[in-house]
Design a protein that fits this description.
Layout (H helix, E strand, L loop, with lengths): L6 H15 L16 H4 L20 E7 L7 H16 L1 E7 L5 H11 L5 E4 L5 H6 L10 H4 L1 H6 L2 H6 L1 E2 L2 E2 L2 E2 L8 E6 H6 L8 H15 L9 H12 L2 E2 L7 E3 L8 E3 L4 H15 L14 H6 L5 E5 H14 L5 E5 L16 E3 L7 H13 L1 H9 L7 E2 L6 E2 L37 H10 L17 H19 L6 H15 L1 H19 L3
Parallel strand pairs: 1-2, 1-3
Antiparallel strand pairs: 3-13, 4-5, 6-13, 7-11, 7-12, 8-9, 9-10, 14-15
Helix pairs in contact: 15-16, 18-19
Amino acid sequence: MKKIKTMGTLLVSTAVMASMLGACGSNNSNNTNAGSNAGTEASANTGSNKADAKAPDTSKKVELVWYLLGDPAKDQAKVTAELNKMLEKDLNTTIKLNFTTWTDWQTKYNLLLASGEKVDMLFASSWADFYKFANQGAFMPLNDLLPTYAPTTWSSVSEQDWKEATVNDKIYAVPATYPEYTPDGLVYREDWREELGLPEIKDLASIEAYLEGVKKSKNITPINGKAYNEIFTMFKSYEGFQQIGGDSGVIVSKSYDTPRDIVAYPFTPEFEEWAKTMKTWAQKGFWKSDTLSDQKEAGDAIKTGQGAAYWRNAPGAGGFITGLQSSNPEIKMGYFPFSRFKNLTMPTLSVNNAMAIPKSAPNAERSLMVLDKLRNDPKYYDLINYGLEGTHYSMDADGKHIVTPPAGVAAKGFIGYDIATWGLRVESMERKKQAGGWEGFDALLEEFKSQSKPNIFAQVIMDYNPVKSQQAAVNSVIQQYGMPLMMGLVPDVDKAIATYRKQLEAAGVNEVLKYVQEQANASFDAQGIK
């Protein structure tokens, strides 16, 4: 599951993110106390449920109770029945899969952990307050259980991933082994770029040349609709600024290499220069003067020939491009990920999707044995993730990827099998093509991996209650003064910047900055980051 954590989406989707992160506890900044050897030394740490070194005992039949997020699939009962046949034969176990549904899922999830209900395993995530619950002791430490009851998983999960699942020297979740890269970028009309002889898009200057070229030659508004995400995410990536601490407004770390250099970006010379450049872009008509109130997606204008660029993260770009290949096959699209500005990408945290065991679980050992099967045995993996072969999918010609609907089944009326098994995913086991099957994504993914660094900023998860009023006031100032500046929609840039800064200070931006700095430093200390 993808989460795009940028200021660009902050003011557009604060309500959505608040539902995921609103309950974060005050101790989250100390989420990872493990050193870089967390994975290799974890078995030496002392957990509260130490397992014997002998072989696992499955003589007693047990029924496991697991919870996943979301809703069950239409044929969930059939799939679970088949799964239980296999589990009973292999591990003398059956499993009852429960689902929170998507209706008020967070309240239900919190109650599961607070009530002490006998649950053997459940989905866990950084965006579902994993670090808060781990700090509060809601989960069972797994250090001593993993080597015995999930040996394949224990040996195959990377040291970095175990580190991200570690709180105060104890592993509290089994992270999905499925790195997700979601850098922001632009999808654009590659056919128009070629037709007009415009330079290959590879930097800010070539982006400007492209927008200017299609504006003049095609007589259209290049970013035709809501353009703020396009411009803000470009600014952040171009300068190398890193959003930090979730909903922190204008607070950023100045670069990956200097994570403790935390500033309010409107007070930087980089912002001054950017605002002046965007003033010229606005004057050239790269977007409309009412773009901040426009509710249309810029991508919709591309489909009708009235637009030329649209902000998407990399997987989203794939879905958009493959959709156009079906609806508008005459259009040829390109994609420029903003990660190329600094040749840096960071995967989402491994515990963005994970599985954890509540401290009151009666069958922790058997749950880990089942999880080891689901993650590493192809028969189990395909069943829990894709359903029944022939009913929900078939294999393609290469025998490696699934096809839906399955061969011989009409697309009309077909209902596939799809549940939120994100916490179980393993990249090497996947049979579903990423990014909607976009053929350009494989090369991009290799590019992202080649320049990947651990996501040290996503681990700075904090409770903003101590500066809640200041934070709300700052966000209001961003909307009133910052967004028009970012889009070049002010008469005098210098005066507008001075007013913006004055209003931010009056709103309490310095108090928010001080708080974020303190909490970030504590998190970086815990991670061993200088």
